[in-house]
Specification:
The chain is built from 8 helices and 6 strands; from the N terminus they run βααβαβαβααββαα. The protein has 243 residues and is α/β, with parallel strands linked by helices. It has one domain: 3-Layer(aba) Sandwich (Undecaprenyl pyrophosphate synthetase), CATH 3.40.1180. It has a 6-stranded parallel sheet, sandwiched between helices. Helix 1 packs across helix 2 and helix 3 runs parallel beside helix 4. The protein binds 3-methylbut-3-enyl trihydrogen diphosphate (IPE) (2 copies) and magnesium ion. Magnesium ion binds next to loops.
Amino acid sequence: MSTPPPPDLPRHVAIVMDGNGRWAKKRFLPRVAGHKQGVEALRKTVRHCLDRGIGVLTVFAFSSENWLRPADEVSALMELLALALTREVPQLQANGLQLHFPGKKQGLSPRIVQALQDAEDASASNQRLVLNVCFNYGGRWDIVDAAQRLAELGQPITEEGLNAHTALAHVGDPDLVIRTGGERRISNFLLWQSAYSEFYFSDVLWPDFGPQAMDEALYEFAQRERRFGKTSEQVEQERQIHA
Ligand code: IPE
Ligand code: IPE
Ligand code: MG
């Protein structure tokens, strides 16, 4: 697999990390074993983003709808988050990562909310890679939350105003959205922000995702022509002017 040329690299990659349960089931393991292996896959993916020079990585770790899962799985996922916060954050910090946890804080335990806040505060001045871990996140919640804030401030509802109050306002929109695990749907991820993202669906289950699978997505991204509503000829002309 050839490496995509740097100019065509996405600046911001978002990933729906799906397929942990099926990965575990195939091995006759409990679903939580798949989630644990999923943390490993995320660690590898972060390292690869650093190697490739990607500026922003946004991952979907727990959706607003995932509360509907069996209670023991939900609490295992909460425990895993708490564990990852203690174990991983110092290393991520040392590697120059700026951490954010977009998502609704209501419903999470005060201990976790505090740990999320501490990790964000401690890493706020890091510049190497912005990592957004979307936890208790839903695209519809994000839009409604931003609209409510505008209303509270008495500000007009404009695209720019609403955008400024969304959970990913600190980074631009994702250039590339990857979903692993074979499903071809967005499952209430970045509804507002993915208006012009390129989508890439991989059949690889998230715990098996690694540098090679990521490079395949980056390679495919480099082949796409992003037109943002314009014609192919206009895009080509602009490319020549900027070359
Ligand atoms: C994604 O893997 C992780 C979360 C949604 C928390 P799944 O747990 O959805 O795995 P599958 O889709 O059942 O295989
Ligand atoms: C999406 O996966 C959410 C995360 C990866 C965190 P799901 O497994 O919850 O999505 P559906 O239910 O199959 O659409
Ligand atoms: Mg799933």
